[in-house]
Amino acid sequence: MLAEVRTIDDAKQIMDVAASAKYYAQKHGLGKQAVSYAMEIEIQAEIKLGEFLRKQKETEGLNTGGWVERNAKSCSTQGEPQDRTPTLAEVGISKKLSSEAQVLAALPKEQQQKVIKGEITRKDVKTDQRRADRIEKILSISKSNSNLTIVQAPSFPVILCDPPWRYEHAVSDSRVIENQYPTMELEDICALPIHKIALSDCVLFLWATSPKLEESLEVLKAWGFSYRTCAVWNKEIIGMGYYFRQQHELLLVATKGNLPPPKPENRLPSVFESRRTQHSEKPEVVYEAIEQMYPELPKIELFARTTRNGWKSWGNQSGS
Predict the structure, then answer these.
(1) Bridge partner list, 230
(2) Structural domain tally of the chain?
(3) Residue 128 placed within a domain
(4) To bridge 156 with a disulfide, which of 7, 87, 228, 300 should be the other Cys (CB 3.0-4.6 Å)?
(5) Is residue 167 part of a domain?
(6) Which domain holds residue 104?
(7) Is 65 helix (H, G, I), strand (E, B) or coil?
(8) Is residue 139 in some structural domain?
(9) Which residues have a Cβ under 8 Å from the Cβ of 190 and sit 6 or more positions away?
(10) Over the stretch 195-227, which tens digit does the pLDDT of each residue have?
(11) 158 and 306 fall within a common domain
(12) Helix, strand or coil for residue 289?
C-alpha cells in the first residue's frame, strides 16, 4: 500500500488505518511487536504525506483555509471558487500534522529510519529542528564578522576568554604574574566593551582560578551574561596555594539571549584532565570541546596567546 501511494489522500488513509491497527493492538494486548509494526507503518505514511505536502507547497501552494491563489480568478458570484483545492481540514489534516509531516519528510533518510524504528522520538526531531533554525538565524547574523579591534568589532555567538587577573599577593618575585604578561584591575576587565563583539544570543566560556571566582561572577554580570554552569580542568601538576595547593582551574559557562545548548551527543563530561604546560596556556581539549559543542558558529578567543584555525583571536600574544 505504501508503494502505491500517489496522493495526499492515499497517505492520510494509510496513516488512519495504521493508527487504528495500533489502537487495536494496544487495546487487545497483541504485544509490543504488533504495536511497533503499526507505528512504523503510520510514520512511513506520514513521511509520504509530508513529501506530497512539501511538493504541493512548492508548486501550487497549500490551502490552509483560504483559497489558493491559482483559483482566485475562478470564483462564482457567491464568492466560492468553482474548482478549488480542498483545505487541509477538509481532508482530515490539521496544521500540526501538516507541519510535523513536512519536518519528517525533510529529514535525511538516516534520521527518518531512526524515527521509524523508535530510536529517536518526534520530540527529539522538533528539538533538533528548533535548534537548527535558531543556529541558522544566529549564523546568518554573524556572517558579517571581520577582524576584531575590541573598539569597533562585529558580533560573535561563541566567546572564550582568559582574563589577565591581577593578584594582590605573590609567593616570590620570580612568580609575580606581571613577569608573565600584563595584568588588569577588576574594574578595567569589567569595563571592556564586550557588548561590541558579543551577539545578542551568545555563550561565554570564561576561565577563572579559584581565588578569582567571586570576581569572575562580577565580570559575567558586568558583561551582561548569566552564569549557567562550569567545568573543571585537572592540571595534573600541583601548584601553589594558601589553603589548598591548586591543581585545577574553572571554566565558567554563561549565556545571554537565546543561544541553544549543544546537542546531547556533543555534551562532554564536566571534568577534563590535561597536563599543565606553560604559564596560563590552556589545554587543546578545551578548544576541541567548544568546537564540538558549536561546530556551526563563529568563535573568538579574547586575550589569546596564539591564533587557532577557524577562530578569531585578540590578545597581546596572539599577533592580532
Answers:
(1) 252
(2) 2
(3) no
(4) 300
(5) yes
(6) 8-65+84-120
(7) coil
(8) no
(9) 218, 219, 222, 223
(10) 888 999 999 999 999 999 999 999 999 999 999
(11) yes
(12) helix
